[in-house]
Amino acid sequence: MEVTICPLPEQRAIVSKIEQLFSELENGIANLKLAKEQLKVYRQAVLKKAFEGELTKKWREQQTDLPDAGGLLEQIRKEKEKAAKKAGKKLKQVKPFTEDELEDLNRLPKEWNWVKIGNLTLGVEYGTSAKSKESGDVAVLRMGNIQNGRFDWSDLVYTSDKTEIEKYLLSKDDVLFNRTNSPELVGKTAIYKGEKPAIFAGYLIRINQLSELAVADYLNYFLNCHIAKVHGNSVKTDGVNQSNINGEKLGNYPFPLCSLPEQQTIVQEIETRLSICDKIEQDIETNLEKAEALRQSILKKAFEGKLLNERELAEVRGAEDWEPAEVLLERIKAEKAQNGKK
């Protein structure tokens, strides 16, 4: 293997400059990573304000026909009765929160009400337990496909089972809840936007929320916010390296119910802010990639003899032990030959 060699003072100067540039580079990378972490905090702060009613406070003041909290509960009753009759299902009663339970939840605007996820649906639904394949007619979404409240379509398995497809085929705006995962990831959710035909696997639960009561994106954002995460941590069942939140526990999750128009407005306010976060995060990732490329570029220049500028080269040539590379090479050869004779 050929090794580039230069005078010792120049080697020391190159090492010193590499360390200096790497130190500056590491500081820059640390700042980028810090900014990335701060974006996570900001995202949660946006969601917190959203579900406390702060983002739509002025909007509510401009409305004249918003239902009050009692009106929302009456709407739930009517819509669920109508949906149950249409589906031919018996309506299940959902036990309301006790006064003590409400005390533990955030205060809401007077037009809102804390209800349970179970109030929004005729029943949640577990996904398929059938074995998937590497290819097939329809994608099967699994817990690993849920990333940051969205579905990642890059790592898919498939099915061609007609019965499974008919039973578990997803519809636009279905919200899926991850019931089994590691303790830090259990309870994450994503919303299906009809990107391509898909069914869902057994570790996921379809909430089947009634569209007359809950905007899908509003529900999805809430289930990915800190309030829902704290509740999930309090009810999950822990096993070896895995935690579980079953359908019954999901049905008892708290949900800050407000009118549909306000839910839609809140989603718009959230997405306006988070889209800026997405752009900044994309810029951060781009700069992190550039930083890694710059690290390689520094090393490349160093070993091509292009890292030191003319002033720095002039300084090292003034060092007491500086000698031309060819002289150094001859000396190395002589020392090597001498050592070979011993």
From TrEMBL:
SUPFAM superfamilies: DNA methylase specificity domain (SSF116734). Residues 109-289 form the Type I restriction modification DNA specificity domain. CDD domains: RMtype1_S_EcoUTORF5051P-TRD2-CR2_like. GO terms for molecular function: DNA binding; type I site-specific deoxyribonuclease activity. One of its GO terms (biological process) is DNA restriction-modification system. Keywords: DNA-binding, Hydrolase, Restriction system. It comes from Methanosarcina mazei WWM610. Transmembrane segments: none annotated. Belongs to the type-I restriction system S methylase family. Its EC number is 3.1.21.3. This is Type I restriction-modification system, specificity subunit S.
